[in-house]
Specification:
The chain is of the alpha/beta class and about 400 residues long. The chain folds into two domains: about 240 residues, Ribonuclease Z/Hydroxyacylglutathione hydrolase-like (Metallo-beta-lactamase, Chain A), CATH 3.60.15; about 140 residues, Flavodoxin domain (Rossmann fold, 3-Layer(aba) Sandwich). The chain is about 35% helix and about 25% strand. Helix 5 runs parallel beside helix 7 and helix 5 crosses helix 9. The mean pLDDT is about 95.
Protein backbone atom coordinates (compact mmCIF):
# COMPACT_ATOMS: atom_id res chain seq x y z
CA UNK A 1 0.00 0.00 0.00
CA UNK A 2 3.03 2.30 0.04
CA UNK A 3 3.58 5.14 -2.38
CA UNK A 4 6.49 4.88 -4.83
CA UNK A 5 8.91 7.78 -5.18
CA UNK A 6 9.44 8.51 -8.89
CA UNK A 7 11.55 11.66 -8.35
CA UNK A 8 12.82 13.31 -5.20
CA UNK A 9 9.70 14.22 -3.20
CA UNK A 10 7.31 13.13 -5.98
CA UNK A 11 5.34 9.93 -5.49
CA UNK A 12 3.11 7.62 -7.48
CA UNK A 13 -0.02 7.10 -5.35
CA UNK A 14 -2.25 5.39 -7.92
CA UNK A 15 -3.83 1.95 -7.94
CA UNK A 16 -3.59 -1.08 -10.21
CA UNK A 17 -6.84 -2.60 -11.45
CA UNK A 18 -5.65 -6.11 -12.26
CA UNK A 19 -9.15 -7.42 -12.97
CA UNK A 20 -10.39 -4.81 -15.45
CA UNK A 21 -11.36 -6.56 -18.70
CA UNK A 22 -13.58 -3.99 -20.42
CA UNK A 23 -13.51 -0.22 -20.81
CA UNK A 24 -16.52 1.08 -22.76
CA UNK A 25 -16.33 -1.60 -25.41
CA UNK A 26 -12.55 -1.87 -25.37
CA UNK A 27 -11.09 -5.15 -24.11
CA UNK A 28 -8.40 -4.71 -21.46
CA UNK A 29 -6.88 -8.16 -21.20
CA UNK A 30 -3.96 -6.86 -19.12
CA UNK A 31 -6.04 -4.76 -16.73
CA UNK A 32 -5.25 -1.11 -16.15
CA UNK A 33 -3.90 1.41 -13.67
CA UNK A 34 -5.31 4.69 -12.43
CA UNK A 35 -2.23 6.79 -11.84
CA UNK A 36 -2.15 9.73 -9.46
CA UNK A 37 0.86 11.64 -8.17
CA UNK A 38 1.73 13.44 -4.94
CA UNK A 39 4.28 16.26 -4.72
CA UNK A 40 5.69 17.06 -1.29
CA UNK A 41 6.50 20.78 -1.26
CA UNK A 42 5.52 23.89 0.68
CA UNK A 43 2.08 23.27 -0.75
CA UNK A 44 1.28 19.54 -0.77
CA UNK A 45 -0.01 18.85 -4.26
CA UNK A 46 -2.05 15.95 -5.64
CA UNK A 47 -2.21 15.48 -9.39
CA UNK A 48 -5.26 13.51 -10.58
CA UNK A 49 -7.23 10.84 -8.76
CA UNK A 50 -8.49 7.30 -9.19
CA UNK A 51 -11.70 5.42 -9.89
CA UNK A 52 -14.22 5.65 -7.03
CA UNK A 53 -14.18 1.94 -5.96
CA UNK A 54 -10.45 2.29 -5.20
CA UNK A 55 -10.80 5.37 -2.98
CA UNK A 56 -9.81 3.59 0.25
CA UNK A 57 -6.66 2.11 -1.27
CA UNK A 58 -5.83 5.49 -2.79
CA UNK A 59 -6.16 7.21 0.58
CA UNK A 60 -3.99 4.61 2.27
CA UNK A 61 -1.28 5.05 -0.34
CA UNK A 62 -1.28 8.83 0.15
CA UNK A 63 -1.24 8.30 3.92
CA UNK A 64 1.97 6.28 3.59
CA UNK A 65 3.63 9.61 2.76
CA UNK A 66 1.48 12.26 4.44
CA UNK A 67 -1.93 12.75 6.04
CA UNK A 68 -4.37 13.40 3.13
CA UNK A 69 -5.92 16.20 5.20
CA UNK A 70 -2.71 18.19 4.66
CA UNK A 71 -3.13 18.36 0.87
CA UNK A 72 -3.19 22.01 -0.22
CA UNK A 73 -3.54 21.71 -4.00
CA UNK A 74 -5.48 19.25 -6.17
CA UNK A 75 -4.91 19.28 -9.93
CA UNK A 76 -7.70 17.78 -12.05
CA UNK A 77 -6.26 17.21 -15.51
CA UNK A 78 -9.37 15.34 -16.70
CA UNK A 79 -12.90 14.90 -15.34
CA UNK A 80 -13.59 11.37 -16.60
CA UNK A 81 -14.56 9.24 -13.62
CA UNK A 82 -11.65 6.82 -13.76
CA UNK A 83 -9.57 9.85 -12.73
CA UNK A 84 -12.01 11.98 -10.73
CA UNK A 85 -14.05 9.34 -8.90
CA UNK A 86 -12.08 9.68 -5.66
CA UNK A 87 -11.93 13.50 -5.72
CA UNK A 88 -15.07 14.03 -3.57
CA UNK A 89 -13.44 12.01 -0.80
CA UNK A 90 -10.19 13.98 -1.19
CA UNK A 91 -11.96 17.34 -1.11
CA UNK A 92 -13.94 16.24 1.95
CA UNK A 93 -10.78 15.15 3.75
CA UNK A 94 -8.53 18.04 2.66
CA UNK A 95 -10.90 20.84 3.61
CA UNK A 96 -8.39 23.63 2.90
CA UNK A 97 -7.38 22.35 -0.52
CA UNK A 98 -7.96 24.31 -3.72
CA UNK A 99 -8.76 22.34 -6.87
CA UNK A 100 -7.24 23.63 -10.13
CA UNK A 101 -8.78 22.76 -13.50
CA UNK A 102 -9.53 24.34 -16.89
CA UNK A 103 -12.92 25.99 -17.58
CA UNK A 104 -14.39 22.86 -19.15
CA UNK A 105 -13.10 20.89 -16.17
CA UNK A 106 -15.02 23.10 -13.75
CA UNK A 107 -18.21 22.62 -15.75
CA UNK A 108 -17.65 18.87 -15.93
CA UNK A 109 -16.94 18.47 -12.21
CA UNK A 110 -20.10 20.40 -11.33
CA UNK A 111 -22.12 18.09 -13.60
CA UNK A 112 -20.66 14.97 -11.96
CA UNK A 113 -20.37 15.88 -8.28
CA UNK A 114 -21.69 18.15 -5.54
CA UNK A 115 -18.95 20.78 -5.59
CA UNK A 116 -20.74 23.42 -3.53
CA UNK A 117 -18.12 23.31 -0.77
CA UNK A 118 -15.09 22.93 -3.02
CA UNK A 119 -12.62 25.76 -3.54
CA UNK A 120 -11.95 25.77 -7.28
CA UNK A 121 -9.55 27.81 -9.39
CA UNK A 122 -9.73 28.03 -13.17
CA UNK A 123 -6.45 27.76 -15.10
CA UNK A 124 -5.67 28.08 -18.80
CA UNK A 125 -2.73 27.37 -21.07
CA UNK A 126 0.38 29.20 -19.88
CA UNK A 127 -0.86 29.74 -16.33
CA UNK A 128 1.58 28.74 -13.60
CA UNK A 129 1.32 27.78 -9.96
CA UNK A 130 4.25 28.01 -7.55
CA UNK A 131 4.02 25.42 -4.79
CA UNK A 132 7.43 26.10 -3.20
CA UNK A 133 10.50 24.60 -4.85
CA UNK A 134 8.41 23.61 -7.87
CA UNK A 135 6.40 25.66 -10.32
CA UNK A 136 3.63 23.93 -12.26
CA UNK A 137 2.70 25.04 -15.78
CA UNK A 138 -0.69 24.16 -17.25
CA UNK A 139 -1.40 23.38 -20.91
CA UNK A 140 -4.94 22.74 -22.10
CA UNK A 141 -5.32 19.96 -24.64
CA UNK A 142 -9.05 19.93 -25.48
CA UNK A 143 -10.35 16.75 -27.14
CA UNK A 144 -7.36 14.64 -26.18
CA UNK A 145 -9.75 13.07 -25.58
CA UNK A 146 -12.40 15.16 -23.70
CA UNK A 147 -13.01 18.94 -23.89
CA UNK A 148 -11.57 19.41 -20.38
CA UNK A 149 -8.29 17.54 -20.92
CA UNK A 150 -5.15 19.29 -19.66
CA UNK A 151 -1.53 18.46 -18.95
CA UNK A 152 0.68 19.73 -16.14
CA UNK A 153 4.43 20.29 -16.50
CA UNK A 154 7.07 20.60 -13.77
CA UNK A 155 9.99 22.34 -15.48
CA UNK A 156 12.67 21.93 -12.81
CA UNK A 157 12.03 18.16 -12.72
CA UNK A 158 11.58 17.90 -16.52
CA UNK A 159 8.42 15.97 -15.69
CA UNK A 160 5.19 15.95 -17.72
CA UNK A 161 1.81 14.78 -16.40
CA UNK A 162 -0.27 14.39 -19.62
CA UNK A 163 -3.21 12.48 -18.10
CA UNK A 164 -4.57 10.20 -20.88
CA UNK A 165 -1.82 11.17 -23.31
CA UNK A 166 0.82 8.46 -23.80
CA UNK A 167 -1.19 6.07 -21.63
CA UNK A 168 -1.98 2.38 -21.84
CA UNK A 169 -4.56 0.14 -20.19
CA UNK A 170 -1.88 -2.04 -18.66
CA UNK A 171 -1.41 -3.32 -15.11
CA UNK A 172 2.10 -4.54 -14.40
CA UNK A 173 4.36 -5.17 -11.44
CA UNK A 174 6.69 -2.72 -13.17
CA UNK A 175 6.03 1.01 -12.78
CA UNK A 176 8.46 2.20 -15.48
CA UNK A 177 9.15 1.39 -19.14
CA UNK A 178 12.50 -0.28 -18.42
CA UNK A 179 11.25 -3.73 -19.48
CA UNK A 180 8.70 -5.31 -21.86
CA UNK A 181 8.82 -2.44 -24.36
CA UNK A 182 7.07 -4.44 -27.11
CA UNK A 183 4.10 -5.15 -24.86
CA UNK A 184 3.96 -1.57 -23.59
CA UNK A 185 4.06 -0.07 -27.10
CA UNK A 186 1.38 -2.50 -28.28
CA UNK A 187 -0.86 -1.53 -25.37
CA UNK A 188 -0.14 2.16 -26.07
CA UNK A 189 -1.16 1.61 -29.69
CA UNK A 190 -4.34 -0.15 -28.66
CA UNK A 191 -5.13 2.67 -26.24
CA UNK A 192 -4.45 5.32 -28.87
CA UNK A 193 -6.46 3.53 -31.56
CA UNK A 194 -9.51 2.92 -29.39
CA UNK A 195 -9.54 6.13 -27.34
CA UNK A 196 -7.59 8.94 -29.01
CA UNK A 197 -7.54 8.10 -32.73
CA UNK A 198 -10.33 10.51 -33.81
CA UNK A 199 -8.38 13.47 -32.42
CA UNK A 200 -5.22 13.40 -34.52
CA UNK A 201 -5.19 17.14 -35.21
CA UNK A 202 -5.46 17.92 -31.50
CA UNK A 203 -2.70 15.42 -30.67
CA UNK A 204 -0.46 17.08 -33.25
CA UNK A 205 -0.86 20.38 -31.38
CA UNK A 206 0.05 18.68 -28.11
CA UNK A 207 3.16 17.21 -29.73
CA UNK A 208 4.15 20.66 -30.98
CA UNK A 209 3.87 21.99 -27.45
CA UNK A 210 5.70 19.02 -25.95
CA UNK A 211 8.55 19.54 -28.43
CA UNK A 212 9.25 22.91 -26.76
CA UNK A 213 9.57 21.31 -23.32
CA UNK A 214 12.59 19.65 -21.78
CA UNK A 215 11.20 16.26 -20.76
CA UNK A 216 12.96 13.35 -19.10
CA UNK A 217 9.87 11.65 -17.63
CA UNK A 218 6.27 11.32 -18.82
CA UNK A 219 3.85 10.19 -16.12
CA UNK A 220 0.45 9.38 -17.70
CA UNK A 221 -2.77 8.51 -15.95
CA UNK A 222 -2.86 4.90 -17.19
CA UNK A 223 -0.13 2.29 -17.47
CA UNK A 224 3.61 2.65 -17.03
CA UNK A 225 5.68 5.81 -16.60
CA UNK A 226 7.98 6.70 -19.51
CA UNK A 227 11.61 7.50 -18.69
CA UNK A 228 13.80 5.26 -20.85
CA UNK A 229 11.86 5.08 -24.12
CA UNK A 230 10.39 8.57 -24.48
CA UNK A 231 11.73 9.00 -28.06
CA UNK A 232 10.03 5.74 -29.11
CA UNK A 233 6.57 6.66 -27.79
CA UNK A 234 6.81 10.21 -29.13
CA UNK A 235 7.69 8.87 -32.60
CA UNK A 236 4.74 6.49 -32.41
CA UNK A 237 2.41 9.35 -31.48
CA UNK A 238 3.68 11.31 -34.47
CA UNK A 239 2.89 8.33 -36.74
CA UNK A 240 -0.52 7.60 -35.25
CA UNK A 241 -1.71 11.21 -35.00
CA UNK A 242 -0.78 11.88 -38.64
CA UNK A 243 -2.74 8.75 -39.66
CA UNK A 244 0.48 7.31 -41.00
CA UNK A 245 0.97 3.62 -41.62
CA UNK A 246 3.66 1.02 -42.14
CA UNK A 247 3.86 0.23 -45.84
CA UNK A 248 4.01 -3.55 -45.59
CA UNK A 249 1.36 -4.04 -42.88
CA UNK A 250 -2.06 -5.38 -43.84
CA UNK A 251 -5.12 -6.55 -41.91
CA UNK A 252 -8.09 -8.60 -43.03
CA UNK A 253 -11.12 -8.27 -40.75
CA UNK A 254 -14.01 -10.62 -41.48
CA UNK A 255 -16.72 -12.92 -40.24
CA UNK A 256 -18.26 -15.90 -41.95
CA UNK A 257 -21.45 -17.95 -41.62
CA UNK A 258 -20.62 -21.25 -43.36
CA UNK A 259 -16.99 -20.72 -44.27
CA UNK A 260 -17.30 -19.13 -47.71
CA UNK A 261 -16.21 -15.64 -46.65
CA UNK A 262 -13.46 -17.17 -44.52
CA UNK A 263 -12.12 -18.97 -47.60
CA UNK A 264 -12.12 -15.65 -49.40
CA UNK A 265 -10.29 -13.97 -46.51
CA UNK A 266 -7.55 -16.58 -46.66
CA UNK A 267 -7.25 -16.15 -50.42
CA UNK A 268 -6.79 -12.41 -50.02
CA UNK A 269 -4.17 -13.11 -47.35
CA UNK A 270 -2.34 -15.45 -49.72
CA UNK A 271 -2.32 -12.85 -52.49
CA UNK A 272 -1.09 -10.09 -50.22
CA UNK A 273 1.56 -12.40 -48.82
CA UNK A 274 2.86 -12.86 -52.37
CA UNK A 275 3.24 -9.08 -52.53
CA UNK A 276 5.46 -9.16 -49.46
CA UNK A 277 2.93 -7.80 -47.01
CA UNK A 278 2.81 -8.85 -43.37
CA UNK A 279 -0.82 -9.91 -43.08
CA UNK A 280 -2.95 -10.32 -39.95
CA UNK A 281 -6.21 -12.25 -40.24
CA UNK A 282 -8.78 -11.10 -37.69
CA UNK A 283 -12.00 -13.09 -37.36
CA UNK A 284 -14.69 -11.22 -35.46
CA UNK A 285 -15.96 -14.55 -34.17
CA UNK A 286 -12.95 -14.68 -31.91
CA UNK A 287 -11.62 -11.10 -31.67
CA UNK A 288 -13.16 -8.07 -30.02
CA UNK A 289 -13.59 -4.98 -32.19
CA UNK A 290 -10.97 -3.16 -30.09
CA UNK A 291 -8.39 -5.84 -30.93
CA UNK A 292 -9.20 -5.45 -34.62
CA UNK A 293 -8.67 -1.68 -34.30
CA UNK A 294 -5.30 -2.30 -32.68
CA UNK A 295 -4.30 -4.32 -35.74
CA UNK A 296 -5.51 -1.60 -38.12
CA UNK A 297 -3.82 1.43 -36.53
CA UNK A 298 -0.50 0.99 -38.35
CA UNK A 299 -1.76 -1.00 -41.35
CA UNK A 300 -1.69 0.53 -44.81
CA UNK A 301 -4.01 -2.08 -46.36
CA UNK A 302 -7.30 -3.16 -44.79
CA UNK A 303 -9.69 -5.72 -46.28
CA UNK A 304 -13.18 -6.26 -44.88
CA UNK A 305 -15.22 -9.37 -45.52
CA UNK A 306 -18.82 -10.24 -44.67
CA UNK A 307 -21.53 -12.46 -46.10
CA UNK A 308 -25.00 -11.02 -46.63
CA UNK A 309 -27.51 -11.77 -43.88
CA UNK A 310 -31.12 -10.59 -44.15
CA UNK A 311 -30.13 -8.14 -46.89
CA UNK A 312 -27.42 -6.60 -44.73
CA UNK A 313 -24.06 -7.00 -43.04
CA UNK A 314 -23.45 -9.80 -40.57
CA UNK A 315 -24.09 -8.30 -37.07
CA UNK A 316 -20.49 -8.70 -35.91
CA UNK A 317 -19.23 -6.76 -38.93
CA UNK A 318 -22.01 -4.20 -38.51
CA UNK A 319 -20.89 -3.56 -34.92
CA UNK A 320 -17.28 -3.30 -36.02
CA UNK A 321 -18.09 -0.79 -38.77
CA UNK A 322 -20.12 1.34 -36.34
CA UNK A 323 -17.10 1.40 -34.04
CA UNK A 324 -14.76 2.14 -36.95
CA UNK A 325 -16.89 5.05 -38.17
CA UNK A 326 -16.69 6.68 -34.74
CA UNK A 327 -12.89 6.43 -34.72
CA UNK A 328 -12.74 7.82 -38.29
CA UNK A 329 -9.30 6.55 -39.35
CA UNK A 330 -7.81 8.09 -42.47
CA UNK A 331 -5.26 7.27 -45.17
CA UNK A 332 -6.03 3.57 -45.59
CA UNK A 333 -6.25 1.47 -48.74
CA UNK A 334 -9.40 -0.63 -48.50
CA UNK A 335 -10.89 -3.67 -50.20
CA UNK A 336 -14.29 -5.29 -49.60
CA UNK A 337 -15.36 -8.86 -50.32
CA UNK A 338 -17.84 -11.50 -49.25
CA UNK A 339 -20.24 -14.25 -50.19
CA UNK A 340 -23.98 -13.99 -50.71
CA UNK A 341 -27.03 -16.10 -51.40
CA UNK A 342 -29.68 -14.11 -53.23
CA UNK A 343 -28.59 -10.49 -52.55
CA UNK A 344 -25.22 -8.70 -52.50
CA UNK A 345 -26.19 -5.78 -50.24
CA UNK A 346 -23.69 -6.39 -47.41
CA UNK A 347 -20.62 -5.73 -49.51
CA UNK A 348 -22.06 -2.53 -51.00
CA UNK A 349 -22.86 -1.30 -47.50
CA UNK A 350 -19.29 -1.92 -46.34
CA UNK A 351 -17.89 -0.17 -49.40
CA UNK A 352 -20.09 2.88 -48.80
CA UNK A 353 -18.80 3.23 -45.24
CA UNK A 354 -15.17 3.10 -46.37
CA UNK A 355 -15.92 5.60 -49.13
CA UNK A 356 -17.38 7.99 -46.55
CA UNK A 357 -14.24 7.58 -44.44
CA UNK A 358 -12.24 8.77 -47.44
CA UNK A 359 -10.28 5.57 -47.90
CA UNK A 360 -8.66 4.73 -51.21
CA UNK A 361 -10.54 1.84 -52.88
CA UNK A 362 -8.51 0.92 -55.96
CA UNK A 363 -10.43 -2.23 -56.91
CA UNK A 364 -14.14 -3.07 -57.03
CA UNK A 365 -15.95 -5.25 -54.51
CA UNK A 366 -15.43 -8.98 -55.01
CA UNK A 367 -18.38 -11.26 -54.29
CA UNK A 368 -18.95 -14.99 -54.63
CA UNK A 369 -22.39 -16.57 -54.86
CA UNK A 370 -22.85 -19.27 -52.22
CA UNK A 371 -19.66 -21.35 -52.31
CA UNK A 372 -16.25 -20.36 -53.73
CA UNK A 373 -15.22 -22.13 -56.92
CA UNK A 374 -11.60 -22.45 -58.05
CA UNK A 375 -12.32 -19.89 -60.75
CA UNK A 376 -13.93 -17.50 -58.27
CA UNK A 377 -10.97 -17.75 -55.92
CA UNK A 378 -8.57 -17.20 -58.83
CA UNK A 379 -10.36 -13.98 -59.78
CA UNK A 380 -10.37 -12.85 -56.15
CA UNK A 381 -6.64 -13.59 -55.89
CA UNK A 382 -5.87 -11.53 -59.00
CA UNK A 383 -7.99 -8.62 -57.79
CA UNK A 384 -6.36 -8.66 -54.37
CA UNK A 385 -2.93 -8.52 -56.02
CA UNK A 386 -4.01 -5.37 -57.89
CA UNK A 387 -5.03 -3.63 -54.64
CA UNK A 388 -1.38 -3.54 -53.53
CA UNK A 389 0.66 -0.89 -55.28
Amino acid sequence: MKAVEIKKGIYWVGVKDWNLREFHGYTTSRGSTYNAYLIIDDKITLIDGVKAPFTDLFMRRIASVIDPAKIDVVICNHVEMDHSGALPAIMEKAKNATLYCPPAGERGLKMHYDTANWKMQIVKTGDTLNIGKHTLTFVQMPMVHWPDSMMTYVADEKLLFPNDGFGQHYASDELFDDENLDIILDEAKKYYGNIVWPYGAQVQKVLETAATLDIEMIAPSHGIIWRKHIPEIVEKYKLWSSYGSIADKAVIVYDSMWGSTEQMAREVAAAWGEKGLRVTLCSLKYSNVSDAINDIVEAKYVALGSPTLNSGILPTMGAFLTYLKGLAPKNKVGFCFGSYGWKKDAQDEMQNILTNLGWELPEPIMTINWRPTPEGLRQLHETALKVVK
